[in-house]
Each structure stands twice: as C-alpha cells, then as structure tokens.
Automatic annotation (TrEMBL):
Protein name: N-(5'-phosphoribosyl)anthranilate isomerase
Record-linked HAMAP family: PRAI
Keyword annotations: Amino-acid biosynthesis, Aromatic amino acid biosynthesis, Isomerase, Tryptophan biosynthesis
Sequence similarity: Belongs to the TrpF family.
Highest taxon of source: Bacteria
Lineage: Bacteria, Pseudomonadati, Pseudomonadota, Betaproteobacteria, Rhodocyclales
One GO term (biological process): L-tryptophan biosynthetic process
EC number(s) on file: 5.3.1.24
Coiled coil: none
Spans traversing the lipid bilayer: none
Pathway membership: Amino-acid biosynthesis; L-tryptophan biosynthesis; L-tryptophan from chorismate: step 3/5
GO molecular function: phosphoribosylanthranilate isomerase activity
Enzyme class label: isomerase
Known catalytic reactions: N-(5-phospho-beta-D-ribosyl)anthranilate = 1-(2-carboxyphenylamino)-1-deoxy-D-ribulose 5-phosphate
Gene: trpF
Length: 207
C-alpha cells in the first residue's frame, strides 16, 4: 500500500513552513482568497515558497478567481499545483497549463462520481465539508458519501486533526489528506506539535 501523501494548507509564516517540511509534509498550501483569514499576498507567498526544498510541492488555493488574478500569482510564485476550491468549471481550471485539483463541497445529495466526471482534467478530486466561506472551516462531513472504489486520486479534507486522521485514513484510504484548521493554534497560525501529531497519525494509519 502506498504512503498517504500529506498537504498542510493555509501557511502564512516561515517558521510554520519549516516545521511542516521538517515533520515530513509532502505539500504546502497557500491561500490566494482574500476573504480567508489565511490569505497571503503574492510577495509573502513568493518568500514562503522559496523555503521549500526539492520534492515538497507548492500548492496555490483559489476560490472563484479570475484568470488575470491566477496569472498574476503564477508570474511571481512558482506553484506546482493549483487547487480550485470554489464554483470553477473544468475550463476555468484547465486554462493555466498546470496540474490542478478540484474541491467538491460535500453534503447530502452530492454525487461524487458525477462531480468527478465534470472535471476529467483534474489530477485529483479533493473532498471537503460544505461550509460557508467555501472551505477551511474545520468541519468534517459524512465520509460514507465517498463511494468505494472511487477511481480517481482522492484528497480527503474537512475537519481532519490528529485525533480523527488515523480512523479517516484507515477507513477511506485516500491518496492524500489535507489539513488546515486541525493543526492551528489560531487561523493562519500553525502549531508545530499539532503538525507533528497529525503527520505521525497518518504514518501510523499507513502502518
Ligand atoms: O483555508 C482556508 O481558509 C480556505 C478558504 C477557502 C477555501 C478553502 C480553504 N481551505 C481548505 O479547506 C479544506 C478544509 O480545511 P480544514 O482542515 O477543515 O480547515 C482544506 O482543503 C484547505 O485546503
């Protein structure tokens, strides 16, 4: 069984980037959504991305951004993966020539297979709880909405933390997990001990 990849999202400080990398994160997410308390400026993101060593991916999170807004970020920040977390359709996501993932906001009635079929070019489908403000709400959802044998790389997110991630990984066996609130002491401020415990939990579940 392959190792579950780990993305830590919503970083705003150099020490948090260093901590996530030191504890073994595979990817670091930067939020380019002005309404988020974790939003970073282009200049701030460029400085933080420069701290990443080889083989730790930089991910840019966007919510209903215009092409100009995304291109403006891409001109200054070397992002390896784009995460679209709003109401974007396939064409909105595919126009930048970069690998991308698409978030599904999960609640009763969402058909994940149908959702995924509408985003054939996505490298993976991220599942998050349906919350006001599009994401980063620290809220779990009913994991039984994820069909068995989903067939696309699945990124599990939404209210994960060190306490529930072991069970989540054992039950769902996602390609990757993504966490923001569950490793914070305050919005946008990560807690090194929580990052360490979260990553240890994933490794424990991987066995
Ligand atoms: O982090 C945010 O502020 C954010 C804002 C808007 C959309 C998505 C956002 N974050 C993503 O939300 C999920 C779940 O986060 P949490 O662990 O429940 O806080 C995750 O994929 C973040 O990347």
């Amino acid at each position: 069984m392959s190792r579950t990849r780990i993305k830590i999202c919503g970083l705003t400080r150099a020490q948090d980037v260093r901590a996530a990398v030191a504890h073994g994160a595979d990817a670091i997410g930067f939020v380019f959504y002005a309404s988020s308390p974790r939003a970073v400026s282009i200049a701030q993101a460029a400085e933080l991305v420069a701290l990443l060593p080889p083989f730790v991916a930089s991910v840019g999170l966007f919510v209903n951004a215009t092409a100009d807004e995304v291109n403006c970020v891409l001109e200054r920040v070397p992002l390896q993966l784009l995460q679209f977390h709003g109401d974007e359709v396939e064409a909105d996501c595919a126009r930048f020539g970069r690998p991308w993932i698409k978030a599904a906001r999960m609640r009763a009635g969402v058909d994940l297979v149908e959702f995924a079929s509408l985003h054939p070019g996505a490298s993976g489908i991220l599942v998050d709880a349906f919350v006001e403000g599009y994401g980063g709400g620290g809220k779990t959802f009913d994991w039984s909405l994820i069909p068995r044998g989903f067939g696309r790389p699945l990124v599990l997110s939404g209210g994960l933390d060190a306490d529930n991630v072991v069970d989540a990984v054992r039950r769902i066996r996602p390609w990757a997990v993504d966490v923001s609130s569950g490793v914070e002491s305050d919005k946008g401020i990560k807690d090194t001990a929580k990052i360490a415990a979260f990553i240890a939990g994933v490794r424990d579940a991987d066995g």
